[in-house]
Amino acid sequence: MNKTNRIRSLFSVMLLLMSITVISTAGGFELGNDVGVGNYPSSVASGDFNGDKKQDLVATNYYDNTVSLMLGNGDGGFQQPAKFNVDVNPRSIRPADVDGDGKTDLVVANSGSNNVSVLMGQGNGSFNPAINYPAGANPYFVEIYDSNRDNIPDVIVPNISGNTISLLLGNGDGSFRAPSSTQVGIKPSSIAIGDYNKDGSMDVAVANYGGSVSILSGNGACGFSKKTVIAVASGPLSITENDFNRDGNRDLVVTKYNGSKVSLLLGNGDGTFNTERQFPAGFKPWSIISVDFNGDGKPDLATTNFSSGTVSVLQGQGNGNFSPLVNYPTGSGPSSVAALDADGDSHPDLVVANHHSGSATLLYGEINSPPVTPPVTPPPVQPPTTTPPKPANDIAAIEQSINTKINDHRKSLGLPALTLNATISIEARNHSQNMASGAVTFGHTGFETRVQTIRQTLSCRGAGENVAYNQGYSDPATIAVNGWLNSAGHRANIEGNYQQAGVGVAKDSNGGYYLTHIFCSN
Fold first, then answer.
1. What is the DSSP letter of 125?
2. How deeply is 470 buried, as exposed, middle or buried, from its count of CB atoms within 10 A (0-12, 13-18, 19+)?
3. Cβ-proximal residues to 240 (8 Å cutoff; 6+ apart), any chain
4. What gap in Å lies between CA 303 and CA 342, rounded to an integer?
5. What CA–CA distance (Å, rounded) separates 153 from 435?
């Protein structure tokens, strides 16, 4: 980077279902300060709610019927909470742009009032008053996905007292239709979304605290074509999904609240799963997420342990096994965990909602290998007058230039050229446009959703993604490609066993370019 001219260039990498070998790293977490949240927080999530491209926090406060917003400073710190009213006993929260205006909204499941609150984001760190939509009896969790392939977010909740799930179809303007209900197991408490039978439609996996996991096969038309039940003992409370053995099939992991373990269900790719395998967790594991914390391309696990005041991290080995857990202290009654990049160093951090302490614990991720340049969008700067950036109408030329340069590099190594695919390019372009508009932060937010969308029309067994940002250069494509080639993780994607790719470029209001390159293997 040329600091004298205040030119900035940023890069980040993400791998999913990689068939190549990436640098093996060992990661850990540094305990940060607790952040005050509210009265018995039960769920926590992250997003950019004021358009400054820094990660913010939101949490539900179970006993005062509010949600708290803590704006991020970008350095790992957060401002004092601002509270917004919802309905009775908010249990779970999900950020999403439900009306397509580029601003992040909130969807909250209220277990005490049997409904869902939707708070439309204003894009400045504030929200419109909540609008409530009916759900079932005691909605315990909330998830957002597109159930009927209309590119409009829908809402799904498990109703723990009704033994049902409720699906609320979105209208595209932030409003939702009356719920449709489907019977599942006893005390459904959590949901994971994935294509478990590889038919291109999103399926629903439900953790039923009463002793099972329900698999609902989506038909792509807001309904389910098949329901199967898998027995899982000891109180399966929370569920997450990923490809934990890198065979191209989606797998499930559930917390066993009464067994102090997590259970892995390896998927067969046809909607069925192998017999559960158990791994130790802490005491009373509650919430679980799956993220690659140490940058080795293998999904890891983090679970909150409600009765021991810890969060456990289990590093994935990429073969369906996990390394022994490492516990980190939290506040009292940790009930929810989320991943984010709080300090802008490109390493995943953790935030844990502490139900009894009324706080959130921050744990900052550390990766013991040469880090990728932190994916933090720089403040607006003036480009050098001698090398003005290309005008916006050259976007197509920049995209083509990236494709050509990548293929030239592959050919120099004797690797086959990547075929530029229109479907993949649409997803890459949408992501660049979302980053440029501030709808998502710089990085890989929504990567798995993009891959799932691509898989609806293409065979994409493995996928990778490189993103970059630069401002003030006369040739954004060359700067991005050179930066990727000088980073081991990005270069691994470029030289990987892929056959198709897509490129998308967008320009922000400050004249900077966001560049996304997605790779797919057949």
1. S
2. buried
3. 192, 252, 253, 288, 289, 290, 301
4. 19
5. 19
Collapsing DSSP to helix, strand or coil, 489 comes out as helix
Tokens for 211, please give them.
């002793």
Cβ atoms of 140 and 92 within 8 Å: the answer is yes
Give me the residues paired with residue 30 across strands.
364
DSSP bridge pairs for 483: none
Report how far residue 81's alpha carbon sits from residue 229's, in angstroms, rounded to the nearest whole number. Answer: 41
What whole-number distance in Å separates Cα of residue 58 and Cα of residue 50? Answer: 12
Q: List the structure tokens of 218.
A: 């989506």
pLDDT along the chain (522 residues), means of 10: 32 36 48 90 97 96 97 94 98 96 96 98 97 98 94 96 97 97 97 95 96 96 91 97 95 96 97 96 95 90 94 95 92 95 90 95 71 36 39 73 94 92 89 87 81 81 84 86 81 87 91 90 80
What DSSP letter does each residue of 188-221 carry, written as one string? EEEEEEE-SSSSSS-EEEEEETTTEEEEEEE-SS
CB-hemisphere CA count at 13 Å for 140? Answer: 24
Q: What H or E segment, with its residue span, contains residue 364?
A: strand 359-367
Residue 371, pLDDT score? 32
Residue 29 near residue 366 (C-beta atoms within 8 A)? yes
Beta bridge partners of 337: 352
